[in-house]
Amino acid sequence: MNPTVPFMPAWYDVAWTVIALGVLAMTLVALHAWWRSPRMVGGTAVGWAIVILALPVVGPALYLAMDTDRRWADDDASSR
């Protein structure tokens, strides 16, 4: 076996790093929005935290899509 030939091409590592950083960023944004949401109390807050953390891509995407507080706050700020 030739040791100078890499097992995986370099672009493969770059692509997976970009994907992993994107998933991490989306999770952090969803957790930040969850933490700042005034509606999150009791069991609802714990449930959403579990969904965000347990489902790597789907959880944060679902929370951000359903986060109406953040969406309405942005609309109110832009209309002033």
Question: What tags apply to this protein structure?
Answer:
elongated, mainly alpha, 80 residues, transmembrane, 0% strand, single chain, transmembrane helix
Task: Give the helices and strands, then pairings.
Layout: H1 10-36, H2 42-54, H3 58-66, H4 68-78
The helicity comes to over 70%
- Strand content is under 5%
Structural class: mainly alpha
Tally of separate helices: 4
> What's the story with the biggest beta sheet?
none
Task: Explain the overall architecture.
Keywords: Membrane, Transmembrane, Transmembrane helix. The chain crosses the membrane at residues 14-34, 46-66. This is Phospholipase D-like protein. The protein has 80 residues and is mainly alpha-helical. It has one domain. The protein is 75% helix and 0% strand. It has 4 helices and no strands. It has helices at 10-36, 42-54, 58-66, 68-78. Helix 1 packs antiparallel against helix 2. The model has no long low-confidence stretch (mean pLDDT 81).
Brief summary of the model shown:
Keywords: Membrane, Transmembrane, Transmembrane helix. This protein has 80 residues and is mostly helical.
